[in-house]
């Protein structure tokens, strides 16, 4: 019985390997166009630090010291983004991890975000101006959230503004962050 199971598993392994090799041989080389699209975001790479404020649904404003670390991964086809924020008592108020990549099949960016409270989202991401201005966001029950990121001073300053809209027409501020390259 063991030998038949071992033979079966070997057969499955071999056919899976051959199938993957065949699939890879048939796929067009997309690395160069993906890298080109990702270069429109290269201004983000590095370590950033600054301040932010967030507005809770009840109107309470919370200030924080923030740090972002953004690194290239997988031959400059993916950005790994990690952000942390602490309040005036050095208590964690924000910790997020995200990956940002370009899908050559849909010709759209994909932005997957995760926060320390256990929530995650697959957000939209668009380049408004290469290496200067970006917008990302997602739907939530009762509306939508969007963030606009603008880089100034030759890429040494990062300004991000978060907004909520219940209807896609009226937008209300929920967050603002100002950072400089560390």
UniProtKB/TrEMBL annotation:
Keywords: Signal. Residues 1-21 form the signal peptide. This is DUF1579 domain-containing protein. It comes from Pelagicoccus enzymogenes.
